User: Which sequence fits this backbone?
């Protein structure tokens, strides 16, 4: 019996060893990999961009900035005002006669132009300013008073000109309706004190020649596309005499307080490099999440198209979702609602959450979309952004302050489909 | 490479859980079992481990998963890594640990049969990696899925793997390592009369060589599902005697270092023989510590923060024209900084103390035959403040004095698949032994968590000659070839009833002396082997079987063994003798009918008495067996007038009409006073006696004429003219003027003058100044006459648009009102209305007619 028990135990163990041991587990040739698909969600950026930051990108003079030490609700609270300056070459008395004699004859000075563009890459639109103006400052160190007359009117030397790609596409002639025009430049007060003249052209005293009922001309001088203000003046000494020296200096300052309403379209083509198509095929989905806390009274609708670099053929439109629902109109960045006049400062930012979601396989239907591979295939994105001030259609006035901010939070969520066999082979290849 | 990967996977998926030798605990004939319980008492006088070969012990364990969880074998023999399969098996915290023990010196000897002393010098190494499940969840599933998304994914299928919006719990993640030498002295002593109690102790001195101790470890990562910001937290305290900050540092294991890192420990244990065959034991081992003074370093890391993304690169972004303009390395650095900025770290070089992993054992051992015993072992130790237990059931067979065999089934390390085997044999005096707690590990390596082995060589001296191995030396053994008991001088008592086999009528069944060693379980005086019913006391007539009710039928053949009965019903009774046995008779005390299961029907109406409301009067089933004599639908037992038909709501009795008004008393609210049926048999009242019945009288308490619905006429202003005849009911007036005040002629003239003189500027509501005088007089009059009101009505001709005419008439009427108000006339004395061209008073087709129609009328009115 005992021997039988021992024998039976040995036999059972033997059978277990022979039948239970799965040698297949230890045959390296059987190793066929195995997939897993980790998903990663990470925040990429948390940026806070002010109007000041943006304006500094372009050649813009910011004359006044918001001063938080000044109490709100008064007109003295500064908001952004752009100023473009231009100076004529000083005119000396020699230009007004010959042989040392000054004669009361008109002398036209060369036509000058002031570039009024704000942004380089904006394509279309306008920004209707409430109260723009051009301030002229003239100093006269001669003993002679002068008449200053703008060469205005139809096809004269006072006009605005819009240009696209360096070509004039629209010219609008201006005329001055100011009762004081032509202006008088006083002679110098003393040998150390120049005569001075300052006057301002604004919506009240300047108009378009062709259509005097059109929008006030100064309100539409500022455009995203390059726009120039041309002006030509003629100086006439009020009396004759000898040349005793002295010069006339004329400076034009275009003052553009950013108060008004606008609608601007921005187009740009951005180059990018992404993973190659093979690497892209390993991604199941990639979602770029954008949360914008917009403290500016500007609303933007942004859409983007992926194109190839050769023929600019459309590969796909970047799919944009809002709260999980597709937004065919593009990504909407809502505007902060402006506060009451006169400051119009928004009380709180507007928050929008949008996703740019790319799927190689539709998570609901299983259909192949290959959107990530398409993104990898292209290398250019045509970006279009329509930027409007809040309640643009009702011409709601806003003001732009330098401290207006936009907080942009960017995160990405992506899922890769990895094969353990390939990873091991790759690792082996690196050995 | 694949072999390497498979090898690593195999190693990572096998091993044990810091459990010591489970099988060894009950292999008490090996001196190495003293490491599990120092109450070991050697069979031989002297036991010596062969120097350098005494004992080797190696163990691996992984509590988280086995190889086949991580690598799935397909039907085509293909192997595929399935991380989710491994995750499914993991607990929140899992352990990979490894232990090695080498005992180059181990010897012991007995002193005067009551004492045993041994000495051991051992080298011990222990390693444990504690890994949280979420660490692998992050690795294989990531933090990018919510629980709902993870649950809905067919390849993942478990919401628990969704970490988006959840905290990845990495608390407890730790490394621990210990390398030290042990010098121990074991002392065991027998106590009590028959040496039933053995108590042992092993104090030991420890010499540390290398150590890593994680004393605090808490890490977590929360991913915000909204903006994916990462909230991380951590607290780590890790000590070691290896400088953490110098990679090239070599471990100082010079003898001096050993003596710097001194420690002390102790093992204690006891065994107690409850009976000759039943033994309990308990031990606590490795109770101690090592103080590390050689190169001690403790590293502290603590902090928490939320990384919301790279910030502070606004200017870089705005000035960049392409992505290449951004400095990738800077961005990478910023991400790393963002994810680590919240931590602060520090180190110190203070000595520290590491505790040994203390283990506890409780054992039960039962020797069910001469050479066979079974044991139960409960083993445990504390890890992460939790008691980690193990259980083992072993069978030990001492085949010969020189050969023993043991097998065990154990549950430990979250594994139910552990079969241990061990054996030892002597080639006198050399004792070889080998064992494993899990022999299945080489057989089923893909399905095992534990690898364990111990082997070595001992020398044994002074073992007594005992052929049958019963512990009684042959020269004192009356049965030297058969294992037996001391009280029978080595002869056996197989059934253990205290009667040795040679005198026992039933040697294999325990029994008292009175029945010659045979059992009589039911105590009826008939021994079991002759008793047909050995577990129930019986009588001899039925060969030991019982007749409980003593009715002459033995219980096994009696349908009613506890109640005396008759033969017709196989021992069951029929008390009422109605031919139906009591067990089937619903009325066993009353004779009855078979149709009613033995119950009676006295009135024979086909309804048995228990369900018959009138059991002695025949009646139909609809009245539960009662009659309805007057046929009014109410059975007699519920009928107030059983002989007279009547409605149910009058309890079966007929109604009357006492006042004879044709309304039966039941419907008559005034049964004693005649009245019409429409007033429920009551007469109508006329409280004020005005001849108008109250039902038609709007003022039942005040007399009034019929034409005013029984109410009197009012005279609010009290001028004697009833309101019905008063044009000015709220202003006292004259009866000849229909209750209104009289307007004097000169007053009417002022009014007419104001109307006649009133003129406006053409098309406007501006009153011409020529009208002011007459309006002033009118205003003066209105101020004087307090009860007067003036109604001002604006009108136009039909020239112009309707709307503009209406507006003009409004403006003009209001203009007059404003003027009068400016002259002191109260606003509430004016009623201003306008009608545009809607109320002409003349022909609009003529200039004269239109002039008349352009007017503002003014009229004195009273309330």
Assistant:
């Amino acid at each position: 019996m005992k021997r039988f028990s021992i024998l039976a135990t040995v036999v059972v163990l033997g059978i277990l060893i022979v039948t239970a041991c799965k040698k297949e587990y230890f045959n390296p040739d059987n190793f066929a990999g195995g997939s897993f698909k980790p998903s990663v969600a990470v925040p990429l950026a948390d940026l806070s961009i002010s109007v000041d930051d943006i304006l500094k990108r372009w050649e813009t003079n910011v004359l006044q900035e918001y001063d938080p030490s000044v109490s709100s609700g008064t007109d003295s609270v500064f908001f952004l005002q752009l100023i473009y300056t231009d100076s004529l070459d000083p005119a000396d008395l020699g230009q007004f006669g010959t042989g040392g004699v000054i004669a009361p004859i008109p002398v036209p000075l060369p036509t000058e132009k002031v570039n009024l563009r704000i942004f380089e890459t904006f394509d279309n639109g306008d920004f209707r300013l409430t109260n723009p103006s051009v301030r002229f400052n003239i100093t006269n160190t001669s003993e002679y008073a002068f008449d200053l007359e703008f060469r205005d009117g139809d096809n004269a030397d006072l006009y605005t000109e819009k240009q696209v790609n360096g070509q004039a596409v629209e010219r609008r002639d201006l005329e001055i309706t100011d009762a004081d025009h032509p202006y008088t430049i006083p002679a110098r007060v003393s040998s150390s004190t120049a005569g001075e003249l300052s006057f301002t052209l604004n919506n009240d005293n300047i108009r378009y020649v062709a259509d005097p009922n059109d929008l006030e001309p100064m309100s539409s001088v500022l455009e995203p596309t390059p726009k120039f203000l041309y002006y030509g003046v003629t100086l006439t000494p009020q009396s004759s005499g000898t040349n005793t020296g002295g010069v006339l200096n004329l400076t034009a300052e275009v003052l553009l307080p950013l108060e008004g309403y606008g609608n601007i379209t921005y187009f740009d083509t951005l180059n990018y490099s992404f993973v190659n198509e093979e690497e892209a095929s390993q991604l199941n989905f990639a979602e770029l999440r954008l949360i914008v806390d917009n403290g500016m009274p500007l609303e933007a609708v942004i859409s983007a198209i992926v194109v190839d670099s050769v023929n600019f053929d459309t590969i796909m439109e970047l799919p944009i979702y809002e709260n999980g629902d597709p937004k065919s109109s593009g990504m909407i960045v809502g505007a902060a609602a402006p506060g009451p006049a006169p400051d119009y400062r928004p009380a709180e930012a507007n928050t929008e959450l949008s996703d740019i979601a790319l799927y190689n396989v539709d998570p609901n239907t299983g259909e192949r979309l290959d959107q990530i591979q398409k993104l990898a295939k292209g290398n250019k994105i045509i970006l279009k952004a329509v930027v409007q001030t809040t309640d643009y259609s009702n011409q709601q006035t806003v003001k732009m302050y330098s401290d207006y901010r936009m907080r942009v939070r960017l995160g990405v969520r992506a899922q890769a489909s990895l094969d353990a066999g390939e990873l091991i082979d790759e690792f082996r290849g690196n050995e | 490479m694949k072999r390497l990967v498979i090898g690593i996977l195999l190693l990572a998926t096998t091993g044990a859980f810091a459990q010591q030798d489970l099988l060894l605990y009950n292999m008490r004939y090996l001196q190495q079992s003293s490491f599990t319980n120092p109450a070991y008492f050697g069979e031989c006088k002297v036991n010596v481990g062969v120097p350098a070969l005494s004992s080797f012990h190696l163990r691996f364990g992984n509590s988280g998963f086995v190889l086949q969880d991580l690598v799935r074998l397909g039907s085509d023999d293909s192997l595929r890594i399935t991380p989710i399969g491994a995750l499914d098996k993991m607990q929140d915290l899992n352990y990979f640990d490894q232990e090695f023990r080498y005992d180059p010196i181990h010897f012991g000897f007995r002193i005067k049969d009551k004492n045993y002393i041994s000495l051991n010098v051992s080298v011990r190494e222990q390693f444990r990696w504690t890994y949280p499940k979420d660490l692998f969840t992050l690795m294989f599933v990531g933090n990018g899925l919510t629980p709902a998304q993870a649950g809905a994914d067919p390849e993942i299928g478990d919401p628990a793997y969704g970490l988006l919006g959840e905290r990845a719990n990495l608390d407890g993640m730790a490394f621990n390592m210990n390398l030290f030498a042990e010098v121990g002295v074991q002392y065991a002593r027998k106590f009590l009369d028959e040496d039933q109690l053995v108590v042992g102790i092993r104090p030991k001195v420890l010499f540390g060589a290398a150590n890593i101790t994680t004393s605090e470890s808490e890490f977590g990562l929360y991913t915000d599902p909204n903006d994916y910001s990462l909230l991380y937290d951590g607290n780590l305290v890790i000590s070691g005697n290896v400088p953490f900050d110098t990679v090239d540092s070599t471990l100082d294991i010079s003898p001096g270092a050993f003596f710097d890192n001194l420690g002390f420990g102790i093992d204690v244990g006891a065994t107690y023989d409850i009976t000759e065959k039943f033994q309990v034991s308990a031990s606590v081992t490795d109770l101690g510590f090592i103080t590390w003074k050689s190169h001690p370093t403790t590293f502290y890391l603590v902090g928490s923060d939320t990384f919301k993304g790279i910030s502070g690169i606004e200017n870089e972004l705005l000035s960049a024209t392409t992505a290449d303009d951004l400095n990738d390395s800077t961005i990478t650095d910023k991400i790393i900084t963002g994810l680590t900025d919240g931590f602060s770290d520090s180190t110190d070089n203070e000595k520290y103390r590491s505790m040994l992993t203390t283990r506890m054992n409780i054992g039960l051992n039962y020797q069910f035959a001469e050479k066979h015993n079974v044991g139960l072992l409960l083993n445990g130790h504390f890890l992460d403040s939790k008691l980690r237990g193990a259980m083992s059931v072993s069978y030990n067979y001492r085949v010969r004095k020189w050969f023993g065999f043991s097998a065990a089934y154990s549950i430990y390390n979250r594994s139910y698949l552990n079969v241990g085997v061990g054996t030892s044999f002597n080639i006198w005096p050399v004792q070889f032994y080998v064992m494993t707690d899990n022999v299945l590990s080489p057989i089923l390596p893909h399905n095992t968590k534990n690898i364990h082995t111990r082997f070595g060589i001992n020398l044994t001296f002074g073992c007594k000659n005992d052929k049958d191995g019963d512990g009684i030396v042959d020269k004192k053994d009356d049965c030297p070839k058969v294992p037996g008991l001391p009280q029978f001088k080595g002869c056996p008592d197989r059934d253990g009833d205290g009667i040795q086999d040679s005198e026992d009528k039933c040697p294999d069944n325990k029994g008292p002396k009175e029945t010659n060693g045979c059992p009589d379980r039911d105590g009826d005086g008939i021994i079991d082997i002759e008793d047909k019913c050995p577990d129930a006391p019986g009588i001899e007539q039925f060969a030991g079987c019982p007749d409980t009710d003593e009715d002459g039928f033995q219980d096994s053949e009696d349908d009613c063994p506890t109640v005396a009965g008759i033969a017709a019903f196989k021992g069951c009774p029929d008390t009422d003798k109605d031919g139906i046995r009591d067990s089937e008779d619903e009325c066993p005390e009353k004779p009855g009918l078979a149709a009613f299961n033995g119950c009676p029907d006295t009135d024979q109406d086909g309804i048995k008495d228990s369900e018959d409301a009138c059991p002695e009067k025949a009646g139909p089933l609809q009245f539960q067996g009662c009659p309805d004599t007057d046929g009014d639908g109410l059975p007699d037992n519920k009928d107030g007038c059983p002989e007279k038909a009547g409605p149910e709501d009058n309890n079966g009795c007929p109604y009357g009409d006492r006042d004879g008004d044709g309304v039966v008393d039941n419907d008559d609210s005034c049964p004693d006073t005649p009245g019409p049926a429409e007033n429920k048999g009551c007469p109508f009242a006329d409280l004020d006696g005005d001849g108008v019945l109250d039902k038609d009288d709007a003022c039942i308490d005040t007399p009034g004429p019929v034409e005013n619905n029984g109410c009197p006429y009012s005279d609010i202003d009290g001028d004697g003219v009833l309101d019905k005849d008063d044009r000015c009911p709220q202003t006292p007036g004259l009866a000849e003027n229909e209750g209104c005040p009289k307007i004097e002629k000169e007053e009417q003239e002022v009014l007419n003058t104001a109307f006649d003189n009133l003129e406006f500027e053409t098309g406007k509501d501006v009153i011409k100044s020529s009208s002011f005088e007459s309006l002033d007089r009118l205003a003066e009059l209105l101020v004087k006459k307090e009860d007067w009101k003036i109604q001002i009505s604006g009108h136009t001709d039909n020239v112009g648009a309707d709307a503009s005419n209406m507006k003009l008439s409004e403006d003009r009427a209001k203009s007059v009102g404003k003027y009068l108000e400016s002259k002191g006339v109260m606003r509430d004395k004016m009623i201003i209305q306008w009608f545009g061209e809607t109320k002409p008073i003349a022909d609009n087709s003529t200039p004269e007619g239109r002039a008349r129609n352009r007017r503002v009328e003014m009229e004195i009115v009273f309330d």
